[in-house]
Structures are given as structure tokens and as C-alpha cells.
Amino acid sequence: MDIIKVFANNVKKYRTEIGLSQEAFAEKAGLHRTYISAIEREKRSIALDNVQKIADALEIETYLLFVEVK
């Protein structure tokens, strides 16, 4: 399992499910839009505090960002 790919795919999946653009989501999470874009494109690693910010903004349990959906 490629954890960066799983995380990136899950961030994008949950973000689009709630109908937020990268810009709106970044604002809600307190992060920069280009940072969210880089995460979704698998170009950035991410600090644990930012993982929590993303999960909180998505209103999901943090572990769901690391569960591979087949």
C-alpha cells in the first residue's frame, strides 16, 4: 500500500463528496490552496497536525484518510 497515494485519493474523495473546491476546503482547514493541491497530487508529505486539520475540515474521523478503498 502506498500511504501517500491512499491519503491523497481520500482527501480528494471526501472533499468532492461534500462539494468543496480546493480553495474553499483550504480556507476551511486553515491551509493554503496550493498545499491542498500538492497533497491531492501526491507531491507533498504532510505533518500530523495538518492531517488533523484536514480531517476536522472534512468532518470525518482521522483514520478514514488512511483506509484504502478498493
From TrEMBL:
Keywords: DNA-binding, Transcription, Transcription regulation. Residues 11-65 form the HTH cro/C1-type domain. SUPFAM superfamilies: lambda repressor-like DNA-binding domains. One of its GO terms (cellular component) is cytosol. It comes from the Bacteria. InterPro entries: Cro/C1-type_HTH, Lambda_DNA-bd_dom_sf, TransReg_Diox_bact_type. GO terms for molecular function: DNA binding; DNA-binding transcription factor activity. SMART domains: HTH_XRE. This is Helix-turn-helix.
